[in-house]
Structure formats: C-alpha cells, structure tokens
Design a protein that fits this description.
2 copies of one chain form a homodimer. Chain A is an all-alpha fold and about 190 residues long. Chain A has one domain: Tetracycline Repressor, domain 2. Chain A has 10 helices and no strands. In chain A, α2 packs across α3. The first copy, chain A, is elongated. The interface of A and B includes residues 25, 114, 115, 159 and 179 of A. Chain A binds a DNA duplex (18 and 18 nucleotides) through α3.
Chain lengths: ~190, ~190
Amino acid sequence: MSTPGPTDSTTREQVLAVALELFTVQGYDGTSLRQIAERLGFTKAALYYHFPAKDSLVIELTRPWLDAVSNLIALSHAGDGGVAERDRLLADYLDVFISHHAVLRFLNQDAGAHKHPDVGKRAQALVEALRQALTGPDADAAARVRVACALGVIHAVAGLDPAALPEARDTVLEAACTVLHGSPPAG
Amino acid sequence: MSTPGPTDSTTREQVLAVALELFTVQGYDGTSLRQIAERLGFTKAALYYHFPAKDSLVIELTRPWLDAVSNLIALSHAGDGGVAERDRLLADYLDVFISHHAVLRFLNQDAGAHKHPDVGKRAQALVEALRQALTGPDADAAARVRVACALGVIHAVAGLDPAALPEARDTVLEAACTVLHGSPPAG
DNA sequence: GTCTATAGGCAGATAGAC
DNA sequence: GTCTATCTGCCTATAGAC
C-alpha cells in the first residue's frame, strides 16, 4: 500500500503554507498569486496546475477548521444545554481554535476572506450557531453580552505566541467560563 | 464668526462615511474608489478633489481613534501602575472603543489596513503599549495571558449591536476586570 | 509540473475642460 | 466641484510549448 493518496503532494502543501503566511500579513485581497509564486521560486502560471483559482487557496486553508467547528456544534445539539454542557462546548471550541491557530490568526482579521460565500459566510453562520448554543434559554441582555465577551476571550488566543498556547490553555478557559457565568469551568 | 472651518465640508464627510461602510464589509483592499464614487453618485476622479490618494481615506477615518488611545496611554504613564489605575485604564479604553465603534468594527478585522504604516503600525504600537501598561511588574505567564484575554473582552464589543452598547458597557467592563485580576472593577 | 506569452480587465492616479 | 478621457501598471486566468 504505497499509494500516495490525494494529500501528500509536497508542492501543494508548500503553496498552501506560503499562501497562509502572506494572507496573514497582507490579507487575502492584498496578496497576489505572483507574490506567492515568487516566494516559492516558480511562476504564477504554475500555481494553476495545483489550484484552479485563487479563492480555492482560502477554501482549502479554512475547510479543516470550518469542518471541526461544524462537528462541534452538531454534537452539542444532542445535549440538554446546561451549564456543564456549555462549558464543555466552550472548551472544545477553544481547543479547536488552538489546534487551528495559524489559520485563525489569518481568518480572524481578514475582511477579504469574510466576503467569500464558502468561507466567510459559513464561518459567520457557525459562530452565530455557537453563540446561540452558549446562550441559555433564560438569557437576558447582560447574559447575551457575556456570551460575546466569552467568545472574545477565546478569539484573543489568535494574538498569542503559538509556543505559549499549551500553557495558556487552562488560563484562557477559566477566563472564558468566568466571563460566561461567573464561576470556573464545570465538569 | 460664520467662518466655515476646515471640517464642515459635507461632501467630504459623505465620502468618509461611504468609505467606512464599504471598508467594513469588503475590506480596504477589496474596496475600489470606483465603488465609493458610484455609491455617492459621482465619478472616481471627483474623489481626488477631496482626497489626494486612497490611503488618505483610511488615515482620516482612523486618526481620531488613534489620537484618543494615544492620549489615554500618555495619561496612564503618570500613575503608579496599581490595580485601581489599571482598571481605570481598561475602562477608559473601553469607553474610547465604544465611542469609535464604527471605525473599530472595520479596523479590528482588516489586514489590509494593518499594513499601512500610519494606521496599522501605529495601532499595533499603541495596543502593545496598552498591553504593557496593563501588565503589572510582578506578572507571570498566566497574568500576561489574562491581559490578552481582558483586551479580547474589550475588542469583542466591535461585534455588538451599536444600539446595545450603552447598556452593555458595565457588563463588559466587569468581565474585563474580572478576567484581568479576578475581581470587579476597582475605583 | 513548470515554463513563456498573452489576453482581458480593473485598479489607482493625473490632465485639463467646464 | 465634478466631469471626460487617458495613462500606467498589476491583477486573475488561459493557451500551449517543453
């Protein structure tokens, strides 16, 4: 079974890595295919052998995270919506955020990517679903604000040093849960 | 004294308002001068009567907030750096964030604008200065993470409904201070 | 799998009429 | 203060050689 499979194309992964790096610094709209190709040492036309269009780069880069969050929310629908359940959802979202840190550093602050229907719109819908899952049935205005703040705490890890993330994880989770309902993580 | 002054040019303000609206949705790089002009009912060339270049739009839009934060930090340097002082800084930063909400909704998630030396770089330096002012002298790794989380709470108000901001303000401040040092706002 | 060459379009910006 | 017309350059994307 030495079959290569569809995901071990080294060049393809190099393209995605360089694209992510440039997208993160310059934004999606601010990065040209010529820049990506130059960084890799070949020409812009060669990119079109690996990817059919520019937006397929951002689609491929973000799909793993989008799928992970999608699964997260689907699973949470099975529960009762109690505090322990919401804390678990928050923790799972944080862990997904950490393990996809590089992509989120880009996605979190790129209005250009948010325009894309298969990326920005889907991400928007998922975060909205998450927001609703975290908002208890007895939520007043202040509680809804606290949900937004708790998500803000999670999103803040996009700005942290990746090397510090494993150590920071529990501190962030405690902060998020405390913001959400005034007490440390349950469960 | 019926002198008009330099700031009552209606057309100029309309241009800035439309630019901010489009920048917020599409990003700076994703918005063309043609789009801005079309929305206003005149041509792209007319914009150049009011503004010398595209980037002057983003400079004018963001300068008020940048100046406000700059003042904030300058004032905080006079204090002793105690907890009450840090809470006051957090509150002041939140209030500036709220009163410049529209600009921050844009600036907070636009990598294109962050590239600009007079905007993104300056904003980066200011937030870094704020981060340092909020980090106490006896700060360990966890404390530094909590500073980042507290700022994340403030930044989350960029995603809130503007109409809800006055009511949300105290809830957000309490969340930010609790994240920072485990207790409600001092002072 | 990468290349050269090029099509076709739209960007930011300028000149000068009105 | 706004217009038309135009310049220059870079963009995405394609065609076809190697």
